[in-house]
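User: Fold this, then the next.

Assistant: Folding the first:
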Amino acid sequence: MNYCSKELAKLKSWILLLLSLFGMTGLVVTPLLFVSFTTSVLAQTQSDKKAEADRLLQQGNQDFYVSQYREALQSWQKALEIYRDIGELYGEGAVLDSLGRAYNSLRDYPKAIEYYQQALVIARKIGTSQGEAASLNNLGNAYDSLGEYPKAIDFHQQSLAIFQAIGDRQGKAQSLGNLGNAYDSLGEYPKAIDFYQQSLAIFQAIGDREGEGITLSNLGDLYKEQEQPELAIVFYKQSVIIRDGIRQGIQVLERQLQESYTETVAGTYRSLADLLLSQDRIYEAQQVLELLKLQEIQDFTRSQRARSLSGLKILPSNRCS
């Protein structure tokens, strides 16, 4: 176990104080008594440092969830130093994974990969299959962002195999969805659809609304790319319904957290509105934008005023309502 020089100096001071006090009282310091005392001091020091590292990890999580990535990085780097100092491998692995996610969000993918690889080493060292599979999944996502799709697929397949072996259905659904993303990027749409459908079925079965919403949005993106707007609208609508339900459910949280989530899912709302607009379904498109309560409502209304006044009759569709 490694301790920094300050901690050793502090320990030496305690030992000198102990010896001084024992000398004053005439108490004999036996080896057993000495070892017991020093062990207690070391344990207390380690416990205090771990508590501080845990606090920093949690602080970083809070900053990350409201997109304060630089602040999160600062907290996590401090936590990483402490976890390594006290030899806390579980904490080290968790913070390495978090650092990877932060750099991934900042689009510094090589840096993200560096931390994900370190997290993978730790996961394998301590024998946590779930942690290993999660790190493999994260590596796959980072390589996907770099456009290295074959490498991404390899990592996601490894992750999928582990999640299947340990019976982690949510992890399995995530790996399947990520494989869908990679094959979508490669233009292999039938394979992508198959993986998305498998992922969607699991998310629905386990009640993971967020995963379900993401997968439906991905299917919408795919059909939009294939110039099948009607199918894209069907999936986008289902995704928006789920996302809006989640937004309603998190109204008890801090406003900053609510806004952060809305920013994350806003792309789906806009994609749906764009497709509806392309089909002259202006009333529906405006309703979608109104759900976001964005300035886009006014911009959209002004840009479409001429078309609205032309006498075009717009009726809301019953599809996916």
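Now the next one, as you asked:
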Amino acid sequence: MARRGGTRGRMRKERLRAQAEEMATARATRSTKQQLALLDDRLGEGEGAKRERGRLALLLESKPKSNTKSSKSNVDGESKSSRPKSRGDNRKAKAKRNRDREEQRSTKSRSSTSTNGRPQGST
């Protein structure tokens, strides 16, 4: 018996890839609540897909109540658009943070020492 040339495996992979894309786009259109409802319909109320259900529950809890988009901000409270974009900008921002940090340290050390250079409270 002769082999067909291996197209069967390729065709199957292509078909599976197309199905996966369709399922991914369908999932992307569903909300978190809709996905939970779909899992309940397919598997039963609270049955199976424990990790997926846990992940969806976390998303529901952490999701803000309002539908308005909040501007994302970084740790310093700056908006995303004001973040440095190039390597030079990153270096400048880092230098500024270091200057600010050193300035804070020096003001703390100045406030805790007296005029003679010794810490206050010790004689």
